[in-house]
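Subject: two folds for Thursday's group meeting

Dear M.,

Sorry for the delay on this. The cluster queue was jammed most of the week, so I only got both jobs back this morning. I'm pasting them in the order they finished. Each block is the input sequence followed by the predicted structure tokens. Could you check whether the formatting survives your parser before we put anything on slides? The first protein is the one we discussed after the seminar.
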Amino acid sequence: MGSTSSDLASRFWGHTTRPPLRASTRRIGNRLINEPPVADTLADPREPMQRSTLRTVTLTVLALAVLCPTASATWSILIVDTATGEIAIGIATCLVGFDLRPSTVVVVPGVGVAAAQSFVGPLSLRELIRAQLIAGTPPSQILTMLSGTDPGHQSRQYGIAAVAGGTVTFTGTGAGAFASGVTGQVGSLVYTVQGNVLTGMPVIAMAEQAILSTPGDVGQKLMAAMEAARSMGGDGRCSCSQFNPTACGAPPPNFTKAAHIGLVIVSRPGDLDAPCTGQLGCGAGNYYLDLNVANQPAGAPDPVFQLQNMYNAWRAQQAGRPDHFQSTVALSGTQLPGNGATVSGTVVLRDLTGTQLTSSPAVTVSLDPSSTATDVQIGPVTPLGNGTYSFVVTAGIVPGQVVLNVVADDGLGNPVRISPQPVLDMPDPFGPCGAGTVDDGVGGSADVLRIAGTAGTNRVVTVGFGQPFTLEVDVPPLQIPGAGLVGNHLLWVRVGVPTVAESLPLGANIGSLCFPVPPLPFTSPTFLITDTFSGTGLFPAMPAPWATTVAGLLTVADLSVQGVIVEDLPLQLAVTNAIRLRVILMAPPVIVSVAPQSAMVGALVTVTGTGFQPGVAVDLAGMAITPLSVTATEITFTMPAGILCDALLTITNVDAQSTSAIMNPTPVITNALFAAGTSAGGALFLVQGTGLGNATVTIGGNPVTNIISQSGVFITMSTPPGSPGPAIVVVTTPAGCQTTTTYTYL
């Protein structure tokens, strides 16, 4: 889509003169930027990337179009390795005094990459691309969103590639000729190549061929493709004619430059990501390889040559530094049952060429946020010399998946996350035997064993120390009620959680218990809980359905419970589901408030807080109190007689954890305001302090009958009449605790 005269005029008059730039090479993190001297220019980074094709223009508008550069990126190459998550982008164009990075690039490490070129739109379009890549939206759908959002869509050119979701290239009808793009795949690599105002299709075709045929890693393929595009003339405005880019063919004869500026970026999973900003655009992170030839004058060398030299120097510097993909992490197992089992890991650091390091840079191992098993313990990383390390992962109780971040320091302060990330599967504490074999009638296993009303989350049930809980055996779904021995059961409890290797097969038609049972019923660490066949066991029991209440276990422990049950005739046994019973110390009790804090004999006292347990003990000044009611957040009792001032109230749970507060506190006066007034009374008087709630006041022995307002920290009153001179003020709580101050009658 061509620019209108008003578009060009507004762009021109919106420019400000740019001061001369000094020649320099800057490093920002991994980012290397060449900035040769640049003359003053009217170029605006927002200018489009193609020459206007206006059919009718005035001489003034034509002059403005000549003065203003007409592109913001000409060719771009995107490569994504869907196996490793590595992404790469290269861009070059025939602009001077300009930096492509803030206006064209979208990089999301480990997720995807995009180039937005031709008539470059506002930052919001690249922000949309970034947000949707992160959301997992396929590039083809992202392109549809861009079309629906942007009135100038046909003036744009895009390449978008995702680790998961494919690729797309788009060239609007308004992009400057020659303009086109291709997408493709070779092995695990997907790619897009696109460009506008090119010398011709060979620029794109030869870049694609370089991707397909160049051996080596993603960075090597990207550099080869950039050189292939350059060798065909690249941007025809540099290699042929500003006004007729395709006139010289591809490649143009004897051309010297294919672009004025360019950049290449290679990002690997674990690189530092950053949101889009107005200054840095949507490529603001810290990436594995980041080279930028920016703000060059027309007389500077071709940026592709410069980028190749910079790349060669960068690659040489990688010797002896840990590499993401050449380094390895080996685990001693792939499963970590949620029962405290351990897996050891070995790290070997190698550089880009696969050479094992002789040094031992810092290595850390942490749990990736994507892990669903979150309570594993990762031990310290131990250097073993020559770039090797060891560590241990200990399972918690939460099943799920463990994803590890193993990160080495590259010597420049940049993190190198070793890929692929090690992954451990954490099954439930018991493995296959935990499901049991009681037929549910629909091809699965029924959970007939329940503790505290549940078969557990991931077969784990947690109860508090000393807290009562229920133990239940349900009727097997296929049981015939009242038929012979159906529903009879034996249950065992084992101290600790068994390993998978301890399972006890009971026969092909019965299944396996998750732990061995001894011939005698009470042989540590396994004990018989119920036996409805002989009537022995810790609890007398009846055939299912059966339930009992356990008063509470006064120990912190991990226990395993499982049994066998008769589920059908004639005497068909099945193994029940297994449950890991965890008896833990609950959170300690906390007193938030006591009301009233100063109570008369017989008054109802309410203690609010958290963590109050059934069986809680209440003690007031050494006197045992029987609560009227107990919930997890509230205890009530009747105030007994004989409680003195500053009595200690102590709440103690059955696990011996306790909390305390003061009752009947002695009031304290810290300040007296307006402490003098007429002997006729009626003067305003205020005392401040603590423990003043519900207190009564006398002044010179005369009661104060007009208390205007009162709280625990102040009393505002109107004084009674009194005799001239000082008078003792007595403040008394409902429990009879007192304090004094002085008031002067005038």
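Second protein, same layout:
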Amino acid sequence: MAARASGDRAALCVLDRDGAELAGIAVEIADDEAERARGLMGRTMLAPGTGMLFFYESPREVAFWMQDTLIPLDMIFLDEEGRIARIHAGARPLDETPIPSGGPVRYVLELGGGQAAKLGLVPGFAVAPLVP
């Protein structure tokens, strides 16, 4: 799997609670304020097996919204170890209702709507590597 670098893409691996590899995901990295603010706004599609990974310097509570986002998304909130803390499935395009992390997180993975369920993601599973 590829190492992460600012503005780059990376290959991530989803692991179940036993550490078995479930799936690979190719992601774009959003690790500065401008990239996080822009996110996936204006996109008209997001291919299965791809997404965007948002990095924060330290764990914090965050909230996302779907302003100017044209496609449904699943938001996977990850703790400092890369474990799934919460999944918000099916965020609606253009909806400006805040979607809170529900606690401190260090990473947020956005996938196309319905992809979290197709991949079998549940809280407690992990995403790796997540070393900045």
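Two things I noticed about the second structure. The CA atoms of residues 84 and 112 lie 17 Å apart. Confidence is low (pLDDT under 50) at residues 1-6.

Cheers,
T.
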